[in-house]
Amino acid sequence: ELQVAKGGSKLKPSAAGAEVPPLVGPGVVYPQKVVLPGRNAMMADLTTVLQRAILDRPVVDQTALPGRFDFDLSWTPDDSQFNGRFRTPPQSTDTPLSGLFAAIQEQLGLKLDPTKTLVDVMVIDHAEKPSEN
Fold it and tell me: Would you say 98 and 76 are in contact if contact means Cβ atoms under 8 Å apart?
């Protein structure tokens, strides 16, 4: 679940109007960090990207934050993210970035909490090739 952290949200409202489509990503993966930009994004847009591209499980928005926001989220990825496509890079002498969970809290004022909750799913129990008409 994506929730507002104890210190409150650090998200800045977007100056773009509702007619401007939201953008979350595509993230840029550098050797030691990922930068995920969000422009005119709602919390549902962020949770969708977290669920589909970064994490291996559903992410549910429980922030109750209305509106659209601009943000840049930067973190050091680990092997559990992006379907294991990126290996944890060796640490450089530069100050390393936090992992995803800490970065969300530090930079956005939100937190990801593992929990059990109900989510909508679609189950396909049968499929056939179409007939030749």
Answer: yes
Strands (E), 1-133: 2-4, 12-13, 23-24, 28-29, 34-41, 69-75, 110-112
- Would you say the pTM of this structure is higher than 0.85? no
What are phi and psi for residue 90, nearest 5 degrees? -65, 145
Nearest to 84 by CA among 113, 58, 104, 55: 55
H and E: helices and strands count for the chain: 2, 7
pLDDT band at 43 (very low <50, low <70, confident <90, very high): very high
Q: Which two tokens stand for residue 39?
A: 């422009």
Burial pattern 105-129, b for ≥16 Cβ within 10 A else e, equals bbbbbbbbeeeeeeeeeeeeeeeee
